[in-house]
Amino acid sequence: MRERARVDRGVSVPASRTKLPAMAPAITTDEDGAADAVLARALCGPVACPPQVRPEVVVRRALYHGVAGCLTGTVEGWPSEAAEALRRAAMAQAMWEMRHRLVLSNLLSVMAASEVRVLVLKGSALAYDLYEPSAARARGDSDILIAPADRDTARRVLAAQGFAHFYDDPTGDEAVRLQETWTKQTPDGLVHDVDLHWQALNSPLLAHALQFDAVWARRHPLPRLCQAAFGLPRDGALLLACAHRAQHIVNPYYVDGQVHYSGDRLIWLRDIDLLARVIEPAEWQDFEAAAAKAGLARVALDGLAIAARQLGTPVPAGTVGRLSAAPQDTPETRYLLGSHQAGRALRDLRAVPGLGRKIGFLWGRLVPPASFMRAKYPDRSKEPLPVLHLRRIAAFLRPRPRGRGT
User: Fold this and answer.
1) Which of 55, 77, 136, 392 falls 20 to 30 Å from 118 in CA-CA distance?
2) In sequence order, what E strands does 243-298 have?
3) Could you list the residue range(s) of the whole structural domain that residue 317 is in?
4) Residues 6+ apart with CB under 8 A from 330
5) Which of 395, 397, 373, 375 is nearest to 386 (CA)?
6) Considering its fold, how many domains does the chain have in total?
7) Keywords, A to Z (predicted)?
């Protein structure tokens, strides 16, 4: 798994769909929890801001959850300092989105002209499929998925488009390394990151899930982005959203430079919610089959249950029953919902094929190359490498959450 991670309307539901049972909203008493609760309700419609929650706390939590852009029209009557700060954040995100769309659409068009098949993943795909406006889906980068055979061509296209490879993965073996980050600075000074994936889930243990050729055959067009833009089929996007949320129970991500561990950011739950509200009965069946085949039935249930608790996400009762009947205690479930970071690393090592590759994987994790270490600690890049390695080891040993389900 990568060590470095960046971050960052109500839809009518057919009556045939039912909510997951026993998922009433949790009641919290601390101020952050109260702010989170009001933000979750605001995603579902206008709501009053309780007087016991300070405006600055609501704003801070909205930025942490990545939902400032989703609150337009739901914060009338809120304290002016909160409403104005959220409006400014949404405007800043809209300005970034306008520029990032140009960068991404140009890249996708050139990729298509170069006969590289590309699928847009996660936030950027959903921004141009389900969010209105697209800028409401806050994020810090774009993720794209290609077939492994297209790596070299894709890299040439990225370089020709002015992107530079950011060495953020210590594993040198491309049969083990599953993604890399490319960065472009535009003339206006903004930096745009694109994560190039050749596997949907960045873990050797999860290599069998959402394989490229299968999802490409059922790709979903994203014409609001550009004519060359395609995403996963919506059922695949829902499975990825549930798995992505579970990955961050343990894996760190950064909001305004601060490290966080949690799978329950409201923007990720909103992704699950919006997808669940639009996929068709046949797509629910495909979702169930893919989750069970990948050993992710429990992970899917976990994501849907938390979205239901926080946002009232409707899920067909049959889906709940069939996912519950699928195997629950799978290696994939233990990896995502039952392991701490060291446990995940060990499971990934076991999943790497061949002794030579296992050694390369382990060595790359234990003693990353200098390029990786300098990139990981740019503010300390002049310090001796042994000092940087000690910092990395200390960070790895710092207590972190252990995976858990609902």
Assistant:
1) 136
2) 253-255, 258-260
3) 18-397
4) 295, 296, 297, 298
5) 373
6) 1
7) Transferase
Q: How many angstroms separate the CA atoms of 89 and 83, rounded? A: 10
Which long-range contacts link 388-396 to residues 24+ away (Cβ below 8 Å)?
392/368, 396/341
pLDDT in tens, 82-108: 999 999 999 999 999 999 999 999 999
403, amino acid identity: G
CA distance 196 to 164: 12
Question: Which strand (E) or helix (H) includes residue 196?
Answer: strand 191-197
Site of tokens 């992710």: 296
Query: How far apart, in whole angstroms, are the C-alpha atoms of residue 275 and residue 241?
Result: 9
Beta pairing partners, 43:
none
Average pLDDT rounded to a whole number, residues 20-27? 36
Residue 10 located in a structural domain: no
Answer yes or no: is 11 within a domain. Answer: no
Residue of 10, 32, 181, 8 lying closest to 92 (CA atoms): 8
As a whole number of angstroms, the distance between CA 209 and CA 174 comes to: 18
SS3 230: strand
Per the structure block, which two tokens stand in for 87? Answer: 């409006």
State percent of the chain over pLDDT 90.
64
**Cis amide linkage into residue 133, ω under 30° from 0:** yes
Run of H or E residues at 272:
helix 266-278
Is residue 402, in this structure, part of any structural domain at all? no
Q: Distance between CA 180 and CA 195 in Å, rounded?
A: 6
DSSP 151-171: HHHHHHHHHHTT-EEE-----
Q: Which amino acid is at 25?
A: P
